[in-house]
Amino acid sequence: MIKVKKVAMYKTYKTTIRSEREMKKTKAIGVSLIMIGLIIMLHHYIFSRRIADINDILHHEFFEAVFLTAGLTLLISAYAKQRSETK
Fold first, then answer.
1. How much is the average pLDDT of 22-46?
2. How far, in Å, are 29, 40, 77 from residue 20 at the CA level?
């Protein structure tokens, strides 16, 4: 009976460590995507002196939106998952 409890506790501990690693990776990827989006915005501002340009909507602005949205989504989901696990 004691061995079964130890094995179950070890599996739970191992799962917790794995999910913490995955959350750290998710947060790192989210921050990286946001940084890439901000760098693209900075690049666009340096060269065209505008943050958004209607004529260039299919080039810079599209990728800015994709990177920023993906990064924010990953960060929000990681924080929500972390908050639900601590309760």
1. 91
2. 14, 30, 13
Q: Report residue 62 CA to chain centroid gap.
A: 19
Contact 67, 37 (CB under 8 A): yes
- Render pLDDT for 36-71 as a digit per residue (tens, 0 to 9): 999 988 988 898 888 777 777 777 788 888 999 999
Which stretch of DSSP H or E encloses residue 69? helix 62-86
Give the whole-angstrom CA distance, residue 57 versus residue 66: 12
Q: Is the dihedral of CA 60, 63, 69, 73 positive or negative?
A: negative
What's the rounded Cα separation, in Å, for the pair 65 and 41? 10
Token pair recorded at residue 83: 């908050």
Q: What gap in Å lies between CA 53 and CA 30, rounded to an integer? A: 25
Q: Which two tokens stand for residue 8?
A: 């179950």
